Amino acid sequence: MEMRPFGRLISVETARRRLLRAVSPIDRVESVPIETAFDRVVATEVRAPRAVPEFARTTWDGYALRSADTVRARRESPVALTVVGEVFAEQAYPRAVRPGEAVAIATGGAVPRGCDSVVIFEEVTRRGRHVEVPRPVRAGDRISPPGHDFPSGARLARRGEVLSAVSVGTIAACGIPRVRVFARPVVAIVPNGNELLVPGEQGAPGRIYESNNASVSAVVAAAGGIPRPVRPVPDDPRAIERALRAALRSADLVLATGGSSVGERDHLPRVLPRLGPLLFHGIAVRAGKPTLAARVGSKVVIGMPGHPTSCLANMFWLGLPVLHRLARRPGVGFTEGTAVLGRDAVAPTPGFSTVVPLRFVRGRAYSTFRGSSVHTSLAGATAFALLPPGKRRVPAGARLRVFHLDPPLGPAVPAGNG
User: Fold this and answer.
1) Alpha-carbon span 268 to 293, nearest angstrom
2) Contact yes or no for 349/388 (Cβ under 8 A)
3) Is it true that domain 29-52+148-182 has CATH number 3.90.105.10?
4) Which residue did the predictor score with more confidence, 345 or 361?
């Protein structure tokens, strides 16, 4: 079995920096219905074409009236107003209201001309065609004036902003049916290995089910991309090269999993230089040392380790920042903080950075790592630490620098929360 040595390993900071320089943010723009625009990145600033509301409207069910008519109203001597009509939310009263008159009005209804306030049903007494008002009503009470929500020309979304549920509702409220957003980047995922089976296929001795497609796809989707996983490719350099070239034709980024190390059947180190110049091969990190990348024109191919924990851990600290840059999403996919280490100590590695997946129990951090080929090494992990090279163990009770995965990969962490 032939083995080749790694060349000079680069640091995690250098690997991330080279990839971020090589990746170009997506520049394709598309117009989407506002109902499907949630979580998309705005490509063109959105401004309100009209004020909202465009007319004075009531914020309560009640009676629209002239506040001047109620100046002398008292509980012991209420003012009686004549109810001359009613207005529902979709209606407009046809004439101006005269002194001594009131109009029944539903929430959201257009306030009739002549009226400057609304009194709610619970505060008055209805007697036939009249309503008795027991206290003075202030001008403007329970009325939302034109432009109260936002005026015409108000900026509703900035370029580069990720649209929230509130922002899409605000845009829809002023009648804008579509919004221009950046396209979601397509990310091809190409596993390779003779031992790999697609989930659902018949098992066999020596064969394992391919799982990186599923976990890497989840990270791609969480970062705003469109995952395009393909069937496992056999350990054949020509087949791998064909699969990668095919993926590059339709994808903005290609992630290859497996075959990235220095063994006899690790073909990516020989295939990628035929596609474009290598950015690096080998990172001084555990887990995840056998990672490589190449620039292919304006695109990048990243070769990830096949071991599931190594692959997914690399997707967290290395893949997420790259995906966020590609998709033009703010941040890097995780939020820095500190946490107190729980029961067990964690050990760094001399000459290597060490990725420690972490779960939290009652505010304390616990390592979940059990081995780079063990899926459950990341079970329950919502954060990770990246220990610098060294020999000194980090003891239980020590405060540790951690990186909390952003939603939906992890729970939201309030700013400034360690």
Assistant:
1) 9
2) no
3) yes
4) 361
